[in-house]
Design goal:
Cytochrome Bc1 Complex, Chain D, domain 2, two-stranded antiparallel sheet, 7 helices, binds heme C
């Protein structure tokens, strides 16, 4: 598992570092992702069930996508074959570096 120092600082809640560096992957996760994926990635939310999310804390599921796949999907979103949006696209709202941090954060949810 690859972890940036920043992610690690966020996860461990190192307040000294997080006040500067952690701008703010956990906040982005809570704000933009947890509604579907759940705080712990388990996806046990109403919106998550409706969208049909899978359990991001599951190691086998995490092995099905690369960091690049994940970043692309966060950017472009995901639609079903009828064009219905399953996961929103975040290219407009999140920077590349936010997205990179979120991918690293998702990796930390793996149990
Ligand atoms: C509207 C609900 C919804 C929201 C909000 C949402 N997702 Fe998803 N996410 C999904 C669905 C649905 C899938 C696909 C599940 C599947 O593989 O069938 C998914 C899959 C993923 C995957 C796996 C990618 C892959 O390549 O298979 C990652 C990583 C992910 N989401 C991260 C995020 C992050 C980070 C955010 C916040 C920026 C986010 N999601 C917000 C619904 C959502």
């Amino acid at each position: 598992m690859r972890l940036t120092f920043k992610t690690l600082a966020c996860v461990l809640g190192l307040t000294v570092v997080s006040s500067i560096a952690c701008a703010d992957v956990t906040e982005n996760w809570t704000k933009s992702c947890a509604s579907c994926h759940g705080k712990d990635g388990g996806g046990h939310t109403k919106a998550g069930r409706m969208a049909g999310v899978k359990d991001l804390s599951n190691a086998d599921y995490q092995n099905t996508f690369t960091d690049a796949d994940a970043a692309k999907q966060i950017k472009d979103g995901l639609q079903d074959k009828n064009g219905k949006i399953r996961m929103k696209a975040f290219a407009e709202t999140l920077s590349d570096s936010d997205i990179k941090d979120l991918v690293a954060y998702v990796r930390t949810l793996k149990k």
